[in-house]
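so my prof wants the structure for this chain in the tokens format not the other one, which i didnt know existed until like an hour ago. anyway here's the sequence
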Amino acid sequence: MLNLLWSALNAVLLVLVFYSLYRAAKLVKQHLGTGALLGFLLALFIIGGRSADASSEAPRNLLARPAQPPLGNASSQQQIALGGSNTLTLLCSYRSNNGHLEPLSLYATVSGIVLGHRWKPIGGMLHEQGSRMQYEVTMQHEWRLLGMQVYGQIEEFRGVMPSPTPP
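here's what i got, hopefully its the right format
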């Protein structure tokens, strides 16, 4: 619930910022003319177009494996509720040989209304536990207000993946 309230606060502040920019643009046009307005808008787009956010980077394997690991013959997916509408999804693949499971990859993503939040996977481990895998995933959770980090925390998730399914 707190996650949704934080996202709503971010949305309200964003609307207020856009309204203020609209009023400023209207004032610039009224007092300085259309040419100054176009320069003002161009400057806003240039400033707003720069982003240091690395959230668009490709998903990375949380296990320390070579870039081209061998293909697995089984996979498993686990979903964990994070509160509000946010869900952590873990996807792992393994190779099964004579009842023994060898972990190959582990990926973590967060979905839902994540406005004002940034989730970044830091690391993860898989351990064989009978015919299933036990996981440990560490995520960095940043609480952001209009794109700037206000508070950060590290969250760890542990559990057992469901039985593997063949590809």
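also thought this was worth mentioning. Helices lie at 2-32, 34-49.
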